[in-house]
Amino acid sequence: MNFDEQCYLADAYTVEFTARVREIEPAGEGEAAAEGLHAVYLDRTFFYPESGGQPDDRGTLGGREVVSVAESEKGVRHLVKGELRAGDEVEGRIDRARRFDHMQQHSGQHLLSRVFLEGYKLTTVSFHLGEESCTIDLEGNAPREERLDEAEARANEIVFGNIPIACRIAGAAEIETSAVLRSRLPDGVDRVRIVEIEGFDSSTCCGTHVRSTGEIGIVKILGLEKVKGNARVEFICGARAAKDYAAKHKLLSAIAAGFTTDWREIPRIVGKLGDEGRELRKKNEELSRELAGFRAAGLSAATGSAGGFDVVKRVFDAGDAASLRETATKIREMGNKIVLFGLSGPSPALIFACSSGVPLNMGEIMKACAGIVGARGGGGKDFAQGGGGDGARVAEALDEAERRIKETLG
Fold first, then answer.
1. Residue 296: is it exposed, middle or buried by C-beta count within 10 angstroms (0-12/13-18/19+)?
2. From the CB of residue 354, how many other CB atoms can be counted at a distance below 10 Å?
3. Residue 90 in contact with residue 17, Cβ under 8 Å?
């Protein structure tokens, strides 16, 4: 790591600077060289290259757009739209809002990771700073919801304390005498950058950070999920948290206005609507069964016979599979019935059923006939159902089913 070149390590707040172009080269084949992109190396830079879970800075160099910044064996590589000349002094301008957002999120991550380690012995094994939110992966069992609330409260307690955050370089002597640093670093490293939240946390890190915890703004945990045996905590800090609150407040206010009530009443109203919805669904199911009984009485007349059993074969051009299933069930419960229903409407369906004691396997018949309409389905001995395919061929499928039944029953 070239600490002299990478000025952002010592100063994360400078977003306008001058530097000299020490080398320039065309972009690689995979970087749309045809668009005039060039890789630029400076004698010093405040542009942060993507690293350690933190995205890169964006802005301009010599008035030309910087589309990405990365580390390479030559130093910090700025991918620029257009061409600069080696030896020229250029002005760099960094997107201030993007930079400060990343500073808030990264400092908030250090704070939150320390809270989980200190309070719950959960070690952070990875960090990702995304465009919308950030995540840390914690090694071990996922913390309970109340612990997430406790961790968030503790993190914000440190934020409100406005504790200084300092960045410094540790040399070879300190590295060799520190068991913690030595265990974290590969052999041969003689200098490393350390970020310290005074009296609370000390971590090796090359990211950009705010000067004090107060500048983090606020820490808000959004959720938790299990990922590859670890607990992934999603969070946001600072301006992102304010934006998130504003959006949710606006949404809650709009919902409350729709119910002409205060937003604090929304949980009660939603609970009441849920109870009413469940009751209505229960009544609807009861009415559907009652209606199916009436329909069954009107539709149970035989259209043919097979082996001494009544065959009820009908094609419907409207309706839904659920109600036809209820009706078919009612008809087969009348005894000595074989039901072949088809729905040819926008959502084609096949429903085959038979009364107990009829020596047929409706699932096998469904498998043999569903392919006629291109439907997918199956079932058991007394009942089978298929859906999808070509509604225009439903009648053909029912005819084939009846033919097979007569062939089986004689």
1. buried
2. 26
3. no
Nearest to 126 by CA among 222, 52, 224: 52
Q: 336 is written with which tokens?
A: 């000595």
Measured between alpha carbons, how far is 11 from 48 in angstroms, rounded to an integer? 11
What tokens were used for 246?
């504003």
How does pLDDT run across 112-150, given as a tens digit for each residue?
999 999 999 999 999 999 999 999 999 988 888 899 999
For residue 161, what are its two tokens? 């304390």
Confidence of residue 346 (pLDDT cuts 50, 70, 90): confident
Q: What DSSP state is assigned to residue 164?
A: B
Tokens read off for 270: 């939603």
- The C-alpha atoms of residue 121 and residue 147 are separated, in whole angstroms, by 12
| Span between the terminal Cα atoms of the chain, in Å | 88
Residue type, 377: G
- For 11-69, the pLDDT digits (tens) are 999 999 999 999 999 887 665 555 789 999 999 999 999 998 999 999 999 999 999 99
pTM, rounded to two decimals: 0.70
* Burial bucket for residue 103 (CB in 10 Å: 0-12, 13-18, 19+): buried
Q: How many residues does the structure list for the chain?
A: 410
d(CA 218, CA 242): 8
Q: Which domains does the chain have, with CATH numbers?
A: 7-94 (2.40.30.130), 100-246 (3.30.980.10), 299-409 (3.10.310.40)
CA distance 252 to 249: 5
Q: pLDDT (tens digit, 9 = 90+) per residue, 282-314?
A: 888 777 766 666 676 778 888 999 989 999 999
